[in-house]
Amino acid sequence: MPSHPAVVLDLSANGVGIIHALARRGIDVYAYDTKGPYSKGKSRLASCAVCPSPLTEEKALLTFLKGVAIKFDQKPVLYAGADDYVVFISKYRAELSEYYLFLYPEHSLIEDLLDKKKTYDLAMKYSIPTAKTFFVETDEQLDEAIFQLEFPCILKPVFGHEFRKHINKKAIKIHDAYQLKRVFPVYSKYGELIIQELIPGDNQTFYKVAAFFDDDMNLLSLFTLQKNHQFPAEFGTGAHIVSKRVPELVDIGVPLLKELGLKGVSMIEYKQDPRDGQFKLIEINPRFWLTHSLTGHSGVDFAYSYYLYLTGGDPAPQLEQIDGVQWIYLVRYFLTFLEKRRNGEMTWKDFLRGFKGKKVYALLALDDPMPFIRSTTSHLWNAWKRNRKE
Questions:
Q1: Whole-model pTM?
Q2: Burial class (CB in 10 A: 0-12, 13-18, 19+), 245
Q3: pLDDT tens per residue across span 156-205
Q4: CA atoms of 152 and 149, how far apart (whole Å)
Q5: Is the pLDDT at 234 greater than 90, yes or no?
Q6: CA–CA separation, 35 vs 33, rounded Å?
Q7: 280 neighbors 200 (Cβ within 8 angstroms)
Q8: What is the three-state SS of the chain?
Q9: Rounded to the nearest 10 degrees, what angle do helices 330-342 and 370-389 cross at?
Q10: Which pLDDT score, from 0 to 100, does residue 6 have?
Q11: Which domains does the chain have, with CATH numbers?
């Protein structure tokens, strides 16, 4: 039996995926999150509890985690499923490394990747194709951007994890200059914004390449995937995706991650522009991503390889994957289907076809039903409230 426990910070579907991957291999898992996510994500496969916020209670969370770790005979492996926790762990890495096992790149790089301005600068430095982007701080810069823009375009926060505390959107679609001038000052109250061209193409033009590099930047895990559907349908996160090896993504993504020194687990998202066929950079995440639970069912188990490496297990590199395995976040897939059906973009036949073949569910699990029940109830309740407002 594995002797090192695992501590997971995050009880969203991302964190629950880590719990499932480890607990089913006999690893003792302890999972924590702030009160809201905890109430929706508590798992029977882990010992779960509420923890202080990494945003507003840093010192309390540091004390809390030290108190958790000293109860164990062996250092726990520390996992984070959300940006807030990644930043916290990285910031306090010197103290936390005395109590936990984890692997992150330099703190300055993590900060750069969570800042869309600096990510854009990295794209320019390494000649990575990206959407046309404008950084606006004054009325004059806004007018200049409008002069150069084609509409519709999108408005995005520079710091997405900070912005979503106030506005639960990844991006806002802007249809014309009048709307942009009207809403820009409204949304800018919640943080810095960028204006970006809208790359055409449906959900299936989104791809990800993920990698796990060890301390010496040796590649231990590699995975690529394609989105089929996301939630919300226009600007959202994965609802239905499929494992798919995309050699071109491997060729451009892996050298970039290595050049940046992104040790540990990381992921790059691209969108393929149908106008020129180029894969254009969307974001780089220095952490486990929402749909990582697909990897273990496709022959590349990121969560377990990370555990083995940090506990001296010397995992063999997993660089080949099984293609065609589908990952389904059931309630989000259903709600996205309803939205696309209203717009004439999807039929019941299309929806049911999404369940054919080998598949894994984000949360649906007979041995751990409550995360699925809570998440489904919450999503349906929120959808009902939105429909009432409309």
A1: 0.91
A2: middle
A3: 887 765 665 666 677 788 888 889 989 888 887 777 788 888 888 899 99
A4: 9
A5: no
A6: 6
A7: no
A8: CCCCCEEEECCCHHHHHHHHHHHCCCCCEEEEECHHHHHHHCCCCCEEEECCCCCCCHHHHHHHHHHHHCCCCCCCEEEECCHHHHHHHHHCHHHHCCCCECCCCCHHHHHHHHCHHHHHHHHHHCCCCECCEEECCCHHHHHHHHHHCCCCEEEEECCHHHHCCCCCCCCEEECCHHHHHHHHHHHHHHCCEEEEECCCCCHHHEEEEEEEECCCCCEEEEEEEEEEEEECCCCCEEEEEEECCCHHHHHHHHHHHHHHCCCEEEEEEEEECCCCCCEEEEEEECCCCHHHHHHHCCCCCHHHHHHHHHCCCCCCCECCCCCCCEEECHHHHHHHHHHHHHCCCCCHHHHHHCCCCCEEECCCCCCCCHHHHHHHHHHHHHHHHHHHHC
A9: 30
A10: 98
A11: 6-102 (3.40.50.20), 132-197 (3.30.1490.20), 203-389 (3.30.470.20)
User: Which structure tokens are listed for 34?
Assistant: 């702030």
